[in-house]
Write a structure and sequence with these properties.
Blueprint: H1 18-70, E1 77-78, E2 93-96, E3 101-105, E4 111-115, H2 122-167
Antiparallel strand pairs: 1-2, 2-3, 3-4
Amino acid sequence: MTQETVTKPEPVEISASPQLKETERKKQLNIQELIEALKSTADDIGQISELTSEEKILVTQFFASFLKLMKPLTPSISVSQFALPPELSDAVQAHVDPTGHLVIEYPDGHVKLEDLSEEKNRDLMTTVIVDILPKFKTLTAAQKRKLENRMKLLSTVTKEIQKSADALPSSLVQE
């Protein structure tokens, strides 16, 4: 009788090549990076939403206050052509009116109104604000000087009239 030995085949270990392992590791890193990027994007979107809401409130408050101050000083404030964005470079004149609109006049005579408080016009709004606030400061300073000069004149004239009135004999004053 012959004795046969049966050998069990050993499980074959399939080992991945070093390049395959590196590729898998990179895929895992790439997936992890993508997940982190998406989480960061979600955070950014949340912040954009919050900032947009806050911006809307600030724009409303700004125009309510600014236009309240502007009305007694001037019917409009001119905007420099150089302050306008390139897409409005063909305008011949522009100014902000008391309703918060940018009135843009073109060479052919047509007029375009842009509501500066609208979200689509926020960049235009900031450009215009930067241009008109120094002009607004000049207007307020001029109004202050005008009032001070009137007060000075009235004060001087009133004192002289009071002196004359005091010098008038009371017998001449009719009751």
